Q: What sequence folds into this?
């Protein structure tokens, strides 16, 4: 049996003794306990909401609508200006051709300028047939309102108008109306407009406006197969119901008719460009040709004109002689 020893009493250290809270501190703690603080989170949405809820006076509202119209219709005004510059030949003091003028002055390609000009006609058709934006008064403020048939909304860029350029005026209006409805009453994208045009073409069999032998420019738009081919010209070798086969200097492409833009040349000019296309194709097919050949082919392949300059003719002829192609027609 193990011996037992008496327990020693352990003294509490002085530092361990509980400290008495001063009365002043106790009173402060009691006061703090009775204060209830509610945290309110201020979000960015609240700030924006407070800012946007401020009403505009009549002058400010008028200025806002005018500025919005300018932003929405900037492409339309550009197209109108380009059309007048072209029709009146106001570029003639500095440039020989409208194409060169657009490139040097605005950085526009021939196709880009042509699309802007073409959009004017379509926009005018939509704007003069009850499709224009209406304004109604509500609470002292002007607001845009879409009519019950969904035709009050107008395009805001040329991409939305491109699929409409080959349609009749009535078809243009009908397609745009359906596009607005499909977009939920908002401005439709060019893709929505194109999808509706495709459906109508399949249903109504809109005739192909192009013919064999015609010279056209390739318009890539949303076609990934034509990437990098914008502005290239070619001769139509087959015209189907909804598409055409186009022969260019570097190959053949089967494309929908909305990916083509006719140069509207006379028959003799079309034949001249067909012959030029064959010359370029033969040169392109020469094995292990010099890189300078490609530079020339790419340049002439985008020069949509039925003739060559004197220098271009000499250079092309020299390259053909270099590879034994001179004398071939």
A:
């Amino acid at each position: 049996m193990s011996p037992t020893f008496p327990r020693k009493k352990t003294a509490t250290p002085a530092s361990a003794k509980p400290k008495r809270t001063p009365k002043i501190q106790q009173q402060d703690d009691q006061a703090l306990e009775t204060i209830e603080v509610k945290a309110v989170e201020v979000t960015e949405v609240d700030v924006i909401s407070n800012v946007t809820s401020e009403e505009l006076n009549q002058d400010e509202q008028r200025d806002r609508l005018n500025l919005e119209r300018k932003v929405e219709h900037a492409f339309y005004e550009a197209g109108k200006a380009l059309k007048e510059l072209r029709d009146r030949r106001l570029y003639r003091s500095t440039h020989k051709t409208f194409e060169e003028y657009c490139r040097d002055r605005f950085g526009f390609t021939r196709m880009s300028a042509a699309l802007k000009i073409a959009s004017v006609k379509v926009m005018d058709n939509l704007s003069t047939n009850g499709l224009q934006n209406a304004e109604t008064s509500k609470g002292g403020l002007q607001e845009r309102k879409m009519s019950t048939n969904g035709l009050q909304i107008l395009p805001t860029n040329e991409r939305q108008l491109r699929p409409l350029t080959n349609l009749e005026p009535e078809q243009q209006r009908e397609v745009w109306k359906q596009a607005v409805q499909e977009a939920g009453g908002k401005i439709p994208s060019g893709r929505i407009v194109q999808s509706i045009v495709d459906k109508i073409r399949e249903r109504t069999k809109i005739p192909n406006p192009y013919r064999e032998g015609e010279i056209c420019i390739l318009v890539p738009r949303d076609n990934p197969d034509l990437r990098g081919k914008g502005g290239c010209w070619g001769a139509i070798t087959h015209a189907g119901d909804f598409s055409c086969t186009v022969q260019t200097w570097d190959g053949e492409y089967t494309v929908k008719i909305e990916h083509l833009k006719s140069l509207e040349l006379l028959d003799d000019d079309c034949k001249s460009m067909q012959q030029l296309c064959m010359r370029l194709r033969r040169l392109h097919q020469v094995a292990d040709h010099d890189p300078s050949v490609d530079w020339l082919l790419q340049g002439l392949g985008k020069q949509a004109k039925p003739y060559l300059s004197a220098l271009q003719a000499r250079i092309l002829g020299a390259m053909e002689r270099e590879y034994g192609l001179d004398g071939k027609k």
